[in-house]
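User: quick one, sequence for these tokens?
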């Protein structure tokens, strides 16, 4: 802005004396210091909080994500209850809305995945027990730019179907561990009880066990959703072949049913199983079940949610292109007390 000079002639006036008031120097100095401190405080805390918010977009700081988990088995199964408990714990930490659904039929599971895609979720967690049924819908998730993580079943198919990473155990390796353990407890002829026909993970467990067991082992297919049928099938097999001295089940509830069959038939068969819950730990401690192969389902649910949060917020992918193994760990009478407190609270 330019200054404007007045055209009025210059006049000299005698200044009128004004009374002077001086504030004490101490008062001014204190006020200045207080203002400086206040400004510094605002700059320091505000800047720090803003920086933390920009570099740590987690709970309370970043956008709320919506993550869907769709599994091939679910409610009412203690294993999947533990998976969900882990996922919900991570969701609470990460400011995530967690959605869960399940269906044992491959086509129905795929439809549930499509529903999640239609809901525009920020990430999908899926099991690949029947990978061929999931191929097309996971391609649609990729087209919608929705990241996918697989857990539990289908490690071999995970990368091929576009998942970022797989969390679980190598089912063949776990099966081999179970076969060795079954032989270690003295079994010579065994059953491997498959509670869901066509489940690639369960088939791999039995195949691995046969490889290391050292004796004859045959698969017994049962309908896992019908426990009375499971019991009658195991009982009938033990009655028909008295030489069976080992039973390997592929889930904790089926091990408990096998215990009933052994008692009813008077069989001497020793029982081992995959997966755990608090009742199973008690059975290991009292000797009615010899061992369990623990794949840590809580960890599978927890890490799957955490991975999707990390990917969305920081581009992180765990595993370096390989499955992230959560098992196997063998639980026997010797170490059951160590995991019992965790099983009691429902996290092992």
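Assistant:
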């Amino acid at each position: 802005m330019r200054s404007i000079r007045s055209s009025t002639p210059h006049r000299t006036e005698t200044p009128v004396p004004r009374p002077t008031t001086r504030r004490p120097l101490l008062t001014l100095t204190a006020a200045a210091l207080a203002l400086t401190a206040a400004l510094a405080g605002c700059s320091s805390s505000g800047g720090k909080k803003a920086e933390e918010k920009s570099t740590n977009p987690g709970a309370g700081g970043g956008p709320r994500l919506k993550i869907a988990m769709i599994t091939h088995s679910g409610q009412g199964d203690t294993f999947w209850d533990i998976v969900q408990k882990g996922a919900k714990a991570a969701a609470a930490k990460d400011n995530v809305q967690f959605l869960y659904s399940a269906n044992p039929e491959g086509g129905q599971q795929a439809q549930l995945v499509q529903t999640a895609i239609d809901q525009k979720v920020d990430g999908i967690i899926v099991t690949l027990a029947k990978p061929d049924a999931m191929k097309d819908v996971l391609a649609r998730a990729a087209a919608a730019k929705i990241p996918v993580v697989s857990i539990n079943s289908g490690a071999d198919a995970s990368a091929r179907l576009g998942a970022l990473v797989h969390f679980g155990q190598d089912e063949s390796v776990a099966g081999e561990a179970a076969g060795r353990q079954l032989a270690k407890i003295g079994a010579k002829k065994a059953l491997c009880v498959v509670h869901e026909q066509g489940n690639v993970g369960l088939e791999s467990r039995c195949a691995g066990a046969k490889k290391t067991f050292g004796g004859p082992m045959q698969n017994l297919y049962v309908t896992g959703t019908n426990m009375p049928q499971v019991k009658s099938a195991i009982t009938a097999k033990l009655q028909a072949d008295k030489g069976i001295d080992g039973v390997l089940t592929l889930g904790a509830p089926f091990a408990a049913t096998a215990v009933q069959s052994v008692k009813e038939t008077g069989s001497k068969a020793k029982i081992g199983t995959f997966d755990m819950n608090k009742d199973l730990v008690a059975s290991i401690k009292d000797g009615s079940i010899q061992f369990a192969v623990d794949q840590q389902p809580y960890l599978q649910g927890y890490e799957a949610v955490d991975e999707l949060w990390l990917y969305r917020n920081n581009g992180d992918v765990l595993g370096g292109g390989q499955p992230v193994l959560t098992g196997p760990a063998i639980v026997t009478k010797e170490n059951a007390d160590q995991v019992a407190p965790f099983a009691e609270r429902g996290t092992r």
